[in-house]
Design a protein that fits this description.
Distance between the termini: 67 Å
Bound molecules: zinc ion
Number of helices: 11
Largest sheet: 4 strands, parallel
Order of helices and strands: HEHEHEHEHHEHEHEHEHH
CATH class of the largest domain: Alpha Beta
Pfam family, one: ZnuA
Number of strands: 8
Radius of gyration: 22 Å
Helix content: 40-55%
Strand content: 5-15%
Shape: globular
Structural class: alpha/beta
GO biological process, one term: metal ion transport
Number of domains: 2
CATH topology of the largest domain: Rossmann fold
Family: Belongs to the bacterial solute-binding protein 9 family.
CATH architecture of the largest domain: 3-Layer(aba) Sandwich
Keywords: Signal, Transport
CATH superfamily of the largest domain: Nitrogenase molybdenum iron protein domain
Organism: Paenibacillus albilobatus
């Protein structure tokens, strides 16, 4: 009797908790509020947020939609995001098919909204999806998972430079009075990106191995710009299930070429990377597609540059003879 009662109490408590969570709009919220007297900028996800802050400086208030620890491929906005974006002057999104929700979202903004939306990947030579992504087209999953181009532009410092320049131009368009300040901060960011680019080029050029095995296909631009070949367990979306044939082929490739490391990433399950590694005798290492920061990385003060430099360190380790 007592036990049943306890179970009932526990069940009731759980229900209450659930109701409270639903009422609060459970799950992580985007951070930030509109600030009067500044250029308010809404960004879709982390790297764009970081670059927008670097270029906007004191003249801008930047609100990022995606909270820490959230993977951007399947995220969709909430009502507060519509309120904030309607009041903002700028809306920066990656484009290249990453945020499939954007057209619908922009249509849903307040009619009085004067926000200008910019696809910051404009001008980057995009990588076409290779057509071998049938496994992404599961029935019932809808268009969100069908990428026709690789959306992961920011993972290469070379494309990040183009994105930064686009953002600078957009700032100057909506706030020409502070043109010089935007320009100066942009040049500073550009210099840091050029340094990063030189490190990647210089170090990866010398590595004897050129092939990387990754969990989700997020390193196409990095591979293209720095002479690597990417083999991915999963497709362009990290939640697509691989076909067993892919895993078998990859496993053979890893064994044949004697590849030492399988890369995985923090925001996505490492199950398949670990399976492949244990099957082939390889080890696992992190390669971060910089799609968002984890809570830990946030506390640690990590940013695009520190995560990309960690990536370079791990690439050097993996690409040794
Ligand atoms: Zn991705």
């Amino acid at each position: 009797m007592k036990r049943t009662w306890r179970l009932k109490t526990a069940a009731a408590a759980l229900m209450t908790l659930l109701i409270v969570m639903l009422a609060a709009g459970c799950g992580p919220q985007s951070q930030g509020k509109i600030v009067e007297g500044k250029v308010n900028v809404v960004t879709t996800f982390y790297p764009i947020y970081e670059f927008a802050k670097a270029i906007g400086g004191d003249d801008a208030n930047v609100i990022n939609l995606l909270p820490a620890g959230v993977e951007p491929h399947d995220w969709t906005p909430r009502s507060q995001d519509i309120v904030n974006t309607s009041k903002a002057q700028l809306f920066f999104y990656n484009g290249a098919g990453l945020e499939g929700w954007v057209p619908q979202f922009l249509k849903g903004l307040n009619r009085s909204s004067k926000v200008k939306a910019y696809e910051v990947s404009q001008g980057i030579k995009l990588i076409e999806a290779d057509g071998e992504d049938e496994h992404e087209h599961h029935e019932g999953e809808g268009l969100r998972h069908q990428h026709h181009v690789d959306p992961h532009t920011w993972v290469s410092p070379k494309s990040a430079m183009i994105m930064a320049e686009n953002m600078k131009n957009s700032y100057i368009e909506v706030d020409p009075a502070h043109k010089d300040a935007y320009n100066e901060r942009y040049l500073n960011l550009k210099k840091r990106l050029e340094e990063l680019d030189r490190e990647f080029t210089g170090k990866l050029d010398k590595m004897p191995r050129k092939e990387i095995v990754v969990s989700h296909e997020a390193f196409g631009y990095l591979a293209r710009d720095y002479g690597l070949t990417q083999h991915a367990i999963m497709g362009l979306s990290p939640d697509a299930e691989p076909r067993s044939r892919d895993l078998l082929e990859l496993s053979n490739l890893v064994k044949e070429k004697g590849i030492h490391y399988i890369f995985f990433e923090e925001l996505v399950s490492d199950r398949l990377a670990k399976t492949l590694a244990s099957e082939t005798g390889a080890e696992v290492l992190v390669l971060n597609p910089v799609e968002g920061l984890t809570e830990d990385q946030l506390k640690h003060g990590d940013d695009y540059f520190s995560l990309m430099r960690n990536n370079l360190t791990n690439l050097i380790l993996a690409l040794q003879e």
